[in-house]
Write a structure and sequence with these properties.
The protein is 40% helix and 21% strand. It has helices spanning 4-21, 42-56, 67-75, 88-96, 133-137, 151-162, 166-169, 179-187, 198-202, 234-243, 246-254, and strands at residues 32-38, 59-65, 82-84, 106-110, 113-118, 142-145, 173-176, 193-197, 207-212, 222-227, 258-259. The strands form two sheets. Strands 2-1-3-10-4-11 form a six-stranded mixed β-sheet. A five-stranded mixed β-sheet has the order 7-6-8-5-9, sandwiched between helices. Helix 2 links the parallel strand 1 and strand 2. Helix 3 packs parallel to helix 4 (88-96). The protein starts with a helix and ends with a strand. Belongs to the bacterial solute-binding protein ModA family. Residues 1-30 form the signal peptide.
Length: 262
């Protein structure tokens, strides 16, 4: 089937042929790079997509979802070029499967998890072993990404277990496929509270951060990035270099991420 992707390819190569026929130096060819990225990166990746495409003439196709869903798609042969995960475990899994290009993996970002409440101006809450989260929820639900699969949910559950709060709220948790869906439940008032990344809360006006979970209550939140081993072309390395550069750093920091020193 002749798709829009094929059409773009044909136009590019026809144009290159015309330049050569006229004796005009051709510009560097453009490539399409498919990025699989954790859903919590949505806002930052939108800005990075615009800046990278303007700087290089390459096209980015960005697919956002929970890291677990993306990793499983990669295992099943999805045609992705770059993977940015919200935790190291899923990247470890792909590396063990031989699905990463050797020497391309690096830690890109850090994040934190927060407790959010519906609306604006909610009162701050001291997060610790004495917090009565079940009482705060009442008959409502605690919105979280899948607690056994999606990194934001895994970190949130680990923190609640560390603080001795999980058993009291387990039956009140409303699990979603990714962290942005959990954020939406709180923003729309379907859940009074939720656990999301600090960077997600920045992206939504209809929630209030009422507390930050202690760093020592969950594993370090690290976002690794890597080139996938299914194909190899120079534009992939260009994009990974761009992720380490100043423009990407500013885009990530505007969303509240901490960029790991390279």
């Amino acid at each position: 089937m002749f798709t829009p992707t094929h059409l773009r390819y044909a136009i590019r190569h026809s144009a290159a042929a015309l330049f050569l026929a006229l004796g005009v130096p051709s510009i560097a060819s453009a490539d399409e790079i498919t990025i699989f990225a954790a859903a919590s990166l949505a806002n930052a990746m939108a800005e990075i997509e615009e800046k990278f495409e303007a700087a290089t003439n390459h096209d980015l196709v960005i697919s956002l979802a929970g890291s677990s869903a993306l990793a499983r798609q990669i295992q099943q042969g999805a045609p992705a070029d770059i993977f940015i995960s919200a935790n190291t475990d899923w990247m470890d899994t792909l590396e063990a499967d031989g699905l990463l290009e050797g020497g391309t993996r690096f830690d890109l970002l850090n994040n934190s998890i927060v407790l959010i409440a519906n609306g604006t101006g909610a009162a701050p809450i001291s997060i610790g072993p004495d917090m009565d989260l079940a009482a705060l929820l009442g008959d409502g639900r605690l919105a979280m990404a899948l607690v056994d699969a999606v990194p934001a949910g895994i970190y949130g559950k680990a923190s609640l277990e560390s603080l001795g709060l999980w058993d009291d709220v387990e039956e009140k948790v409303a699990q979603t496929d990714n962290v942005r869906a959990a954020l939406a439940l709180v923003a729309t008032g379907e859940a009074p509270y939720g656990i999301v990344y600090a960077t997600d809360a920045v992206a939504e006006d209809d929630v209030t951060v009422v507390g930050t979970f202690p760093e020592d209550s969950h594993p370090p939140i690290i976002y690794p990035a890597a080139d996938l081993a299914n194909r190899d072309f120079p534009a992939e390395a260009e994009f990974l270099d761009f992720l380490r550069g100043a423009e990407a750093k500013m885009a990530f920091e505007r969303q509240g991420f901490v960029v790991v020193s390279q």
